[in-house]
């Protein structure tokens, strides 16, 4: 039987995860899940609500909208958070049983609420790193409880290099092999900035792959383009349209400024940021590089290979079934990964059937179903 690894699932954080795992000196900075007077549950920080908590239903995005509309209308919630939250959403051993139920062998597991708070806490770097450390400590437990079938994704920022070095060493010791980072600038510095070379070396030395994933992180567009911020929307529509822009911009910067040339063992993952953009992006990457080299009389950096070749060797991209990863692979090359986004509402409860309907069969596409995610996991 062909092995099947899901490159994008999520584990809900428990109400007390951050308080349980944060350094005692930072306990006042711990995120939490708190119920308001009407019974709605909120992700909160320093006593203030950050985001309304949802119990997602795979394939039923409208249920999240209905939950928000009830809140806006002043109605009580249609469910109590703790009463309807399935064990498979947050308990590692229950998630492993769910994998068996749907015919999957392994899964990469990202945070759930960890996608909602990084930018909103950015005014306090100490709070950001403290809460990231709390999640990362739980990742070590997930790694152990998953018995090789769950691959937890750490949460890191590049803003504090010394903290990052310590976290990478601890994560590597626990066997964690993936870490979510932002695809935007780092306190005004591009990812390719020379000051970051030691950071990329540290990722490589510790055998941990940085991954871009949809999240509340520093933006590449001005805040004026996101009016949904003021209305309580979970995701601004503009952001959903341009999901692919932050990773495309970041990878352009890394490739053209020679980061992969200098760090040949560095790998990157791109997850839940769509994949249909990749063929056109690679065409433009090579074309724009050729054009500007002639126009300016010199390249951005001296590269030994075509820009697109660095992408094809160093980057792996999750591709939803409806994006037709078989066709994308034929156009671009074998860089795409199977994903379900379980248990999020925009994901699916029937991942294998979804891909098979698109002509993706496990024995014929080992890259899609396990080889490419194995590259990121250093298997």
From TrEMBL:
Stretches assigned to the Amidohydrolase-related domain: 132-372
SUPFAM superfamilies cross-referenced by the UniProt entry: Metallo-dependent hydrolases (SSF51556)
A Pfam family matched in the record: Amidohydro_2
Gene3D superfamilies for this protein: Metal-dependent hydrolases
GO-annotated cellular components: cytoplasm
GO molecular function annotations of the record: carboxy-lyase activity; hydrolase activity
Record GO biological process: secondary metabolic process
Record PANTHER family: 2-AMINO-3-CARBOXYLMUCONATE-6-SEMIALDEHYDE DECARBOXYLASE (PTHR21240), ISO-OROTATE DECARBOXYLASE (EUROFUNG) (PTHR21240:SF28)
Protein name as it appears in the record: Amidohydrolase-related domain-containing protein
């Amino acid at each position: 039987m062909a092995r099947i690894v899901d490159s994008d699932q999520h584990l809900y954080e428990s109400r007390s995860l951050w308080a349980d795992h944060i350094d005692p000196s930072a306990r006042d900075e711990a995120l939490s899940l708190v119920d308001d007077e009407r019974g709605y549950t909120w992700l909160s920080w320093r006593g203030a609500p950050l985001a309304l908590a949802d119990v997602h239903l795979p394939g039923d995005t409208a249920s999240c909208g209905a939950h928000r509309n009830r809140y806006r209308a002043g109605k009580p919630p249609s469910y109590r958070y703790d009463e309807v939250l399935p064990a498979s959403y947050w308990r590692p051993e229950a998630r492993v049983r769910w994998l068996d139920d749907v015919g999957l062998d392994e899964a990469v597991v990202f945070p759930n609420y960890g996608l909602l708070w990084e930018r909103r806490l950015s005014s306090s770097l100490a709070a950001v790193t403290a809460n990231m450390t709390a999640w990362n400590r739980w990742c070590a437990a997930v790694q152990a409880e998953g018995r090789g079938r769950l691959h937890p994704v750490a949460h890191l920022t590049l803003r504090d290099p010394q903290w990052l070095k310590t976290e990478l060493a601890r994560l590597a010791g626990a066997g964690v092999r993936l870490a979510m980072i932002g695809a935007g600038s780092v306190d005004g510095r591009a990812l390719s900035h020379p000051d970051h070379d030691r950071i990329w070396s540290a990722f490589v030395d510790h055998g941990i792959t940085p991954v871009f994933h949809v999240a509340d992180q520093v933006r590449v567009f001005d805040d004026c383009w996101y009016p949904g911020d003021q209305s309580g929307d979970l995701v601004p529509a503009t952001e959903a349209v341009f999901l692919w822009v932050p990773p495309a911009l970041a990878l352009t910067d890394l490739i053209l400024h020679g980061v992969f040339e200098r760090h040949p063992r560095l790998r990157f993952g791109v997850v839940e940021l769509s994949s249909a953009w990749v063929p056109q992006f690679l065409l433009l990457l090579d074309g724009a590089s050729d054009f500007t080299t002639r126009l300016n009389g010199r390249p951005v950096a001296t590269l030994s290979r075509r820009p697109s070749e660095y992408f094809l060797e160093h980057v792996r991209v999750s591709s939803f079934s409806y994006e037709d990863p078989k066709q994308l692979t034929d156009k671009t090359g074998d860089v795409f990964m199977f994903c379900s986004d379980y248990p999020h509402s925009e994901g699916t409860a029937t991942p294998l059937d979804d891909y098979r309907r698109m002509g993706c069969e496990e024995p014929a596409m080992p890259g899609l179903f396990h080889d490419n995610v194995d590259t990121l996991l250093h298997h």
